[in-house]
Amino acid sequence: MTQNKQDSRFERGKRALAEIDGAGGEKVIAALADIAPDFARYIIEFPFGDIYCREGLGLREREIATIAALTALGNASPQLKVHIEAGLNVGLTRDEITEVIIQMAVYAGFPAALNGLFAAKEVFAHRSEVEAVGQERAA
Fold it and tell me: With 0-12 CB in 10 A as exposed, 13-18 as middle and 19+ as buried, what is 85?
């Protein structure tokens, strides 16, 4: 995703958020509407409108970095789950995501990596359920 200088940060951010996080991102923005709508706008404009739209890294690489950073923090499970889902949305495989999280054991410690793996397991299970329901409906 590259920046179009004619688009506003907000417009770019909305498109990037939809492409990367899909429904998960929209849920986060909606959840902030009644308490901090300005903060929701900041999320759309800065990370998604400015950073994710920069040239130099693709969305896959950006999500690898994000998953690694959130895993290393060790205390951002809700955000990590959103970005594991986003990683799947932009073409990362479950194995790649798992390897990124395991790699963090070296730098962030086993507890952070373990928490990350459990978050991934939860996201993968939910995604499998959703995919199974979609296949049943298509049949």
Answer: buried
